[in-house]
Write the C-alpha cells for this entry.
Amino acid sequence: MNCLPVIETERLRLRPLHMEDGPHVFAIFSDEHVLRHYGMEPHRTLEETEQMLTHMLAQIETGAVIRFAIEHRESKALIGTIGFHNRAPSHRRAEISYELRPELVCGLCDGSPSRGTSVCCDV
C-alpha cells in the first residue's frame, strides 16, 4: 500500500502517483524537451509509460523510490512529478529529480520563471 503523505502548498499538492495518472505522465515523459537532460528517450506509447508507472509504484511500495505527482490545487491538473531515486539510506543519500509540463506550468507563473515566481518555488 502506497503510504506517501499528501503535501500541500498554496498552489500545489504533492500526492501519491496512481496508475490512472498514466495519460498525464505520458504527456510529460513523451516530451523530448522535458527529457533532454533526463538520461532516457521520450516514451513513444502510453504502454511504455504504464510499464514505467507499474515499476515505479512497485519500487515505491518497497521504499526504494519516493515519487509524487505534482498537482495544481485549484485545477487539479497533474503538472509534473517529483521525488527521490537511487536512495542509499545507510549513506543518507538520494538523488532528486522532477519533470514539469511546460504548457501547464507557464500558465501558473508570471511567464518568466527567472523572476522567482514559478511553481518551482513551491516544489
Remarks:
- The beta strands are 7-8, 12-16, 66-72, 78-88, 93-100.
